[in-house]
Amino acid sequence: MKDYTIDLHATLFCGQCFGWKEESGLFQSVVHGSHVQFTEATFLSAITANSSLAHYFDMDGQYEKANEHLSALDPKLGAAVGMFGGIRILNQDPWEVLVSFILSQNNNIARIRKMYATLAETYGTSLADLWHAFPTARQMSGATEEELRTLGMGFRAPYLLDAISKHALLERVPSLDFAEALKLLMTIKGVGPKVGHCILLYGFHRMEAFPMDIWMQRVMLNWFPGKDPTYFAPYAGIAQQYLFHYARTEGLQ
What we know:
There is one protein chain. With 253 residues, the protein is mostly helical. It has a domain at 94-204: Endonuclease III, domain 1 (Orthogonal Bundle), CATH 1.10.340.30. It contains 13 helices and three strands; from the N terminus they run αβββαααααααααααα. The chain starts with 7 loop residues before the first helix and ends with a helix.
């Protein structure tokens, strides 16, 4: 395992995951069904002792190589790498990502985090210190639309029920090419192109994915006119993270 520099706060609170908490420098969440916690100072020892956690943080990823490649492409991209090059694309559970990004529609991060926690507390396995694992599709299989709406899921409730009924589709994704995988995911209610790209990037580590919301549309129009995400290959997904957060922080000047 290589010891790459990682920006923990940016990685965990950039909008690719919604179950982490940080208080007084202590990061906590549930990863692969187990409660984990560490500080900046103890992170390296935590991932050294836990190979599953190291994989979750993609510590063997080729980020140094990716950052060199992306920095050489364009000055704006180089600036984005300089500011946010410590973000890592997490290796998350695809089901958890599917549900999380169904919840993300017409929403903000604070509310998504609250809804995510509500599902975990209602349907997930109870762990130590009042933590709950995110529920599996089987654990949510008895949910009703009325119940989900009562829990605050709103118009997303029927989308969640459809995702529960079609969760087995996720098992087919790794064997498909990108276009086929995206098409398959979009048969689930509430999954359009942007959410589909999020699922493929954050749930399956498909670096061709390039989630395109209004901010990224503006980024491409203003900074990379005439180009599409293939310009950033083979690190399009990483470039998207850097550019998104750079644009939100520095503006589109």
